[in-house]
Amino acid sequence: MNHPLRQHIEEIISLTDEEFDFILSHFEHVKKRKHQYIVQENEIVNKEYWIIKGCLKSYFIDDTGKAHILQFGMENWWITDYESFIKRTPSKTSIDCIEDSELLYITFENREKLTAQMHKMERFWAKKSKVGRIALQNRILSLLKNSTKERYNLLLEQYPKLFQRVPKKMIAAYLGVSRETLSRLTP
């Protein structure tokens, strides 16, 4: 049976068995329990995570103590604090597990080594980066131009399974509204 990471990568590039074994040798496997952190604010992040199983959230806490969720991560998604990972600066976000999770991670050094030795992976990450930038742009545009109800419906349309896995309080933090406002919009 195909490894799930291989299936994910082969959505973009094709691999031989030897190439995939070489790629996988650069990753480590880790299991985390619900509420465990994989990134904490102000630490230098050295790992990029690929989610095999589970659900995570990336967020920051503002000066008033309010949580703002930037991103959810589910199966087949990549997650880290990318500014910290790439620039080697303190993380501005925290990432923790909403559910028990199973992850693969690659260190910054291993990712650099892998892309230098295997141009197929350089192309893979370039494509994933472009897709990520498009998703981020669409999220920003949605926050700027759509009503709360429109943002809620769009999220529900794009990620219906998320609503069974994430408490409404977190959905509200992602949409940038109070739990009470969200309650008025939902059945």
UniProtKB/TrEMBL annotation:
Residue intervals of the Cyclic nucleotide-binding domain: 32-114
SUPFAM superfamilies: cAMP-binding domain-like
Domain of life the protein comes from: Bacteria
Pfam families associated with the record: cNMP_binding
Signal peptide: none
Protein name as it appears in the record: Crp/Fnr family transcriptional regulator
Annotated source species: Flavivirga aquatica
